[in-house]
Specification:
heterodimer; A: alpha/beta; 8-stranded mixed β-sheet; 4-stranded antiparallel β-sheet; 12 helices; B: alpha/beta; Rossmann fold; 11 helices; about 25% strand
Chain lengths: ~325, ~325
């Protein structure tokens, strides 16, 4: 029998009140995450991937946002029923998050060491001295040499890669079971990105953490994650193990996305193009939200929101043609 | 290849240097040093080709692009456009010459004036050239067609467009006066993947139709590989390797080129990656390392690299490398 997953998200639906009315940012997203799993959430800007991640920690400000329905079960207990105090205990201890731009996440007027210590003092009730020792250990763990001296730096004195290492150290300070990484390397150069992923992979294996990686970079997904969830306009449109998603994607959007990226190892004359643009949240098309851009569009797509069809126990796609032969 | 030697290049850049002063103080500002953004860059560009300029942040690739257009005055060095030294041109002549080379910017949100209609944005260069209003309108609508927009878009304002459409407007504006050279500074990096492919295809298409020459500045190596004929790799203000696309990807001689190319994640699960992880950070251009600027991170550093700066040497077939390993 299968164990209960570490984290189980069921039918999560998040909306925002805006001046144009209610906008649904995340619409019925479900997924499971087991210990040690690496899940990639992929999609273009505005597809709801970041809102999904922030909702797991209840970090989307309400109002204007509203988690309308759904469950977020961490070890069986629903985070959405937790009080604000209980939630604070979850953040950092059970689930941690690192963000895209480390400079805006660090406090510019404190030394980085004391920012790491702060989270240890707050969450683990350590004495200042103990916490400081742990801080040095953590900096060591994220690959910083000369940690004691490094801890005296202010964020502006560090490079982007170093700041992201500090953020990772803060996130890992309390041994979380789940690390959410929201575009952790988008602001970094490619050689630095390689360093950070090397570090994250090593730590993930060592600490047996589950990681949710949010990214738009399919290269990163292919190399780093086990399972993929592709989002489009607030919905999950396809999920599955990474090799299945890349070798036999069954949703036209996933197929298009995969063939529209130029490959560094191969020359092609012309890139495949998905026509049109990602729809705005306030002018969502009827039926399948991808239908205006889909080359296989049928009449039914205009009226009916396709549900996820299970193609195999691990693979599913939300397209009425997913089981058919449209390739 | 040999045809290159016969024809005069469209652009020739010789030993370009650009230093930006760093100043401190409010009342008595004084210079306390300088950033060497570009340090001795030379290359040629031929009619109809695309030269990709790649490197990481702060390597001087964008500055080089601006120097070529003379949007920045070089500290020293020269830029020849069709054999004319741009630095010696009188302001009036330079303004005329500038019609031949235009720029496409990175951020389609900040590079279009929000108070001007699309038509006015595209037609502005013609207004300066003194072309009649009627002609300007017709040309603006033609250009919209060329970049894949509709003529009813002409009277709209930038905020009504998506990022990809705005980049199309930026490209249309650059094409207004039938330029020969476009400097594209990270033209797709602000766009989503699915839209990025649309713009890259458009640029390739336009190049064929209008026989344009591109200087394509980007940090995204997959995109550069897709669009370029030749590629120059920059590191802290210098070109470390320049070659045809084929040679650069197949031979990759400079250790930095090797590390940079290997660092790009490949969108194939389970692909064997022979990744070279560089230690350390990109050095600051305020005080770059002595000798070879890459020696602080180079996996194959030698004694010589600490104090001797390698020169960019032609190793045949227009492939140039600046590394002691290759040229000792």
């Amino acid at each position: 029998m299968k164990n209960d997953p570490l984290l189980s998200v069921c039918d999560l639906c998040v909306s925002f009140e805006t001046e144009h009315g209610r906008m649904v940012a995340v619409d019925g997203v479900s997924f499971d995450l087991n210990q040690g799993d690496v899940l990639g959430i992929v999609g273009e800007s505005g597809c709801g991937k970041t809102v999904t991640a922030l909702s797991l920690l209840r970090l989307v400000p309400s109002p204007p946002s509203n988690i309308e329905r759904g469950k977020i079960l961490l070890n069986g207990s629903d985070l959405l029923q937790f009080s604000e105090n209980e939630m604070s205990a979850v953040r950092g201890n059970d689930i941690s998050i690192i963000f895209q731009e480390p400079m805006t996440s660090l406090n510019p007027v404190y030394q980085v060491g004391s920012q790491i210590r702060e989270s240890l003092v707050l969450h683990q009730n350590l004495k200042r001295k103990e916490a400081w020792e742990k801080t040095i250990d953590l900096l060591d763990m994220v690959g910083i040499s000369d940690a004691a001296e490094f801890a005296q730096n202010y964020p502006h004195q560090l490079s982007g890669g170093m700041r992201q290492r500090v953020m990772i150290a803060i996130a890992l300070a309390c041994n979380p079971k789940i690390l959410i990484a929201d575009e952790p390397t988008t602001a970094l150069d490619v050689t630095i990105q390689a360093q950070i992923f090397e570090l994250l992979r090593g730590l993930q294996e060592k600490l047996k953490m589950a990681v949710i990686l949010i990214t738009h970079d399919l290269g990163v997904v292919a190399e780093f994650v086990d399972n993929v969830m592709v989002m489009y306009a607030g919905r999950t449109i396809e999920y599955g193990p990474v090799d299945v998603i890349f070798s036999s994607p069954r949703h036209p959007y996933t197929q298009g996305l995969l063939s529209s990226i130029p490959n560094i190892n191969r020359d092609v004359e012309e890139l495949f193009v998905i026509p049109g643009v990602v729809p705005n949240a306030n002018e969502m098309p009827s039926g399948c939200s991808f239908h205006p851009r889909c080359k296989y569009v049928r009449d039914a797509c205009l009226h009916q929101i396709p549900s996820l069809i299970e193609l195999s126990p691990e693979h599913g796609a939300a397209c009425i043609l997913a089981e058919g032969e449209f390739l | 290849m040999s045809a290159y030697h016969v024809k005069t290049p469209l652009v020739r850049v010789e030993n370009l240097v650009k230093e930006f002063p760093i100043s401190r103080g409010v009342l008595f500002r004084k210079n306390i040093g300088s950033v060497q953004a570009v340090n001795g860059v030379s290359f040629e560009m031929h009619d109809g080709e695309t030269l990709g300029l790649v490197g990481e942040s702060g390597c001087g690739k964008s500055t080089t692009g601006r120097l070529v257009l003379r949007l920045l005055e070089p500290t020293s060095g020269r830029v020849f456009f069709e054999n004319r030294d741009l630095a010696t041109l009188q302001p009036e002549v330079l303004r005329k010459a500038r019609l031949d080379f235009r720029m496409v910017f990175q951020d389609p949100y900040s590079s279009l004036n929000p108070r001007m209609s699309v038509e006015d944005i595209i037609a502005e260069p013609m207004q300066i050239a003194g072309i009649s209003k009627l002609e300007r309108r017709a040309r603006a609508r033609d250009l919209l067609e060329i970049v894949g927009l509709r003529d009813y878009h002409a009277t709209r304002y930038p905020h009504e467009f998506s990022g990809g459409q705005r980049q199309r407007i930026g490209i249309a504006r650059a094409l207004t006066m039938n330029p020969k050279l476009l400097v594209c500074d990270e033209p797709v990096s602000a766009l989503d993947v699915s839209v990025q492919a649309q713009i890259i295809n458009l640029l390739k298409d336009l190049q064929k139709k209008l026989s344009l020459t591109y200087l394509f500045v980007s940090h995204d190596l997959s995109v550069v590989r897709h669009i370029s004929d030749r590629i120059a790799v920059m590191y802290v203000g210098k070109i470390v390797e320049i070659a045809s696309k084929k040679d650069l990807f197949n031979k990759r001689l400079h250790p930095y080129t090797q590390a940079l190319l290997s660092a790009v994640p490949i969108p194939v699960p389970g692909a064997k990656s022979t990744r070279i992880i560089l230690s350390g950070d990109i050095p600051s251009a305020i005080n770059p390392p002595s000798g070879c600027r890459f020696h602080t991170r180079c996996p194959e550093v030698m004694k010589k690299c600490f104090n001797e700066d390698p020169v960019l040497m032609d190793i045949g077939n227009e492939h140039k490398v600046a590394c002691h390993l290759i040229t000792h």
